[in-house]
Write a structure and sequence with these properties.
single chain; 137 residues; alpha+beta; four-stranded mixed beta sheet; 4 helices
Amino acid sequence: MPRVVRSCLHNSALLELTGNFSRSKRLLKPGEFKQVFDHSTRSSDSNLTVFCRPNSQGNARLGLAISKKQLKRAVDRNRIKRLVRESFRQHQFVLSSLDLVVLARRSIHELDNRQVLHALERHWQRVIKRCADSSSI
């Protein structure tokens, strides 16, 4: 029995080091989304738009706005949300102290997973640079 407890503790510590996607790392309330939309820096391409805003939380928070109007099938919306969450989880330490909202456009369903992850990587880099520039002014 103690072996199981030790294993669980080890796994939770490992999750904390590799990053997770707990409630504290999500935008949950409509007001939080509104603040990001109203006072943000934006990075866009033909498939995605990423809004960012510095926060005082000390950690990055993500909101997803993947609409049924843009991606009709639930399987497409879920795939994009899963890829965005995974990319965010891997990059959350370099995105620290930012609130981010990701919007998908209709054409994104044509991309494979690798292309979506690559596009997100470019957006994260742009967002870091633009938010750093805007906060220093």
